[in-house]
């Protein structure tokens, strides 16, 4: 009787916040239940410590088949201080060296976009490779022909040189545009994974009390890493086009990690709109607290400025059955409209945003509960891990 087949999968990521940490945690949990896979994570020591300290609280398993290669702070600093081009090559070469020393059979690039130059100019990998493609925006109408040409050229050459087995696209619309470019490389759509938590009414009440979230207003949530792309400025400008009565019905909740410079900018900006009630949670939010932000809200704002690809915020809104007011641009706009998850708007137009807010306050926003449930099912952490498993190993 032959021994069972074992796959040795290595993953590299030098960033340990935001979706990077979430994706890694999901894969650790899911692959802990796949003993035929030996998984090596080449990641910052800060992620390893945080995961081990908090995994039971967060509800993540850690199997004996999960291994870590720690990247210490000086190594991370040395990598991140380089230009984006040199860093791509340096991280790729480091990934290949560590993986081949571990006798990797399969590799996964969590952020393929960034590694293309490293693949082209760096060391040759002698194991099967897969990658997650975040921003294949060369097919967007607004993309310049020069930018689109370079992106397609880089994509074709990097996948050819690495003999890449499979490329996973977070932008489902992009799959048909990618396939003709890649020859033997398989192209698969993959969903943005999100974990759903069981919450009690007491937990929600405690969260609302902690952050002084009003029960008599419509709470509009802007969630995630807070930067100018989130459309906070556009929302605030839109409130100037609302009546005092309408404005008094709204409360803005902004929640997520933020740079000190942008936090100072927002705090100054909020003072310029004294009639807008704003609750700010300027910190990285993990586990159940993420879902509590959505449960405590009424309307999820996705007024992203020229956003490319998918966003887990749309999935989180569906988990909590909250309607969305989002950009009409790109994949997000298409999903919000086609799946009846809320309203879309030109996110760069405060006047149009105000018009949609008026409709929400006066008429409400219709949505499809069935499509929300479909969104949640297709973007679960298990669906994410199963797609990766199928593409990499089968």
TrEMBL record:
Alphabetized UniProt keyword annotations: Transferase
Entries under InterPro entries matching the protein: Glyco_trans_1 (IPR001296)
Coiled coil segments of this chain: none
Pfam assignment, any one: Glycos_transf_1
Record's keyword annotation contains Transferase: yes
The keyword Transferase appears for this protein: yes
Residues of the Glycosyl transferase family domain: 207-370
Transmembrane segments: none
Protein name per UniProt: Glycosyltransferase family 1 protein
């Amino acid at each position: 009787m032959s021994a069972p087949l074992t796959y040795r999968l290595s993953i590299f990521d030098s960033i340990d916040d935001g979706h990077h940490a979430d994706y890694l945690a999901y894969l650790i949990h899911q692959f802990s239940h796949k003993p035929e896979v030996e998984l090596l994570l080449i990641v910052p020591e800060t992620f390893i410590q945080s995961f081990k300290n908090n995994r039971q609280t967060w509800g993540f398993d850690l199997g004996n088949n999960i291994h870590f290669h720690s990247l210490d702070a000086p190594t991370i600093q040395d990598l991140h201080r380089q230009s984006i081009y040199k860093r791509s090559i340096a991280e790729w070469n480091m990934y290949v060296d560590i993986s081949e020393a571990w006798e990797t059979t399969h590799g996964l690039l969590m952020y393929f976009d960034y590694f293309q130059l490293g693949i082209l100019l760096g060391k040759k990998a002698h194991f099967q490779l897969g990658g997650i493609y975040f921003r294949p925006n060369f097919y967007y109408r607004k993309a310049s022909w020069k930018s689109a040409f370079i992106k397609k050229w880089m994509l074709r050459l990097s996948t050819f040189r690495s003999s890449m087995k499979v490329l996973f696209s977070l932008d489902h619309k992009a799959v048909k545009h990618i396939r003709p470019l890649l020859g033997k490389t398989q192209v698969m759509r993959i969903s943005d994974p999100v974990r759903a938590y069981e919450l009690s009414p007491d937990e929600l009440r405690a969260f609302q009390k902690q952050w002084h979230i009003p029960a008599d207003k419509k709470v509009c949530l802007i969630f995630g890493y807070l930067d100018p792309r989130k459309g906070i400025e556009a929302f605030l400008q839109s409130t100037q086009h609302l009546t005092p009565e309408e404005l008094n019905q709204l409360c803005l909740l902004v929640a997520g990690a933020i740079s000190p410079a942008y936090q100072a900018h927002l705090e100054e900006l909020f003072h310029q709109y004294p009639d807008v009630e704003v609750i700010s949670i300027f910190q990285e939010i993990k586990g159940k607290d993420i879902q509590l932000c959505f449960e405590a809200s009424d309307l999820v704002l996705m007024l992203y400025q020229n956003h490319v690809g998918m966003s887990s915020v749309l999935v989180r809104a569906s988990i909590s059955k909250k309607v969305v007011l989002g950009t009409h641009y790109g994949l997000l706009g298409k999903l919000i409209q086609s799946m009846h998850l809320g309203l879309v708007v030109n996110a760069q137009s405060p006047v149009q945003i105000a018009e949609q807010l008026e409709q929400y306050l006066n008429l409400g926003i219709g949505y499809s509960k069935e499509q929300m449930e479909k969104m949640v099912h297709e973007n679960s952490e298990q669906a994410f891990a199963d797609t990766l498993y199928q593409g990499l190993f089968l």
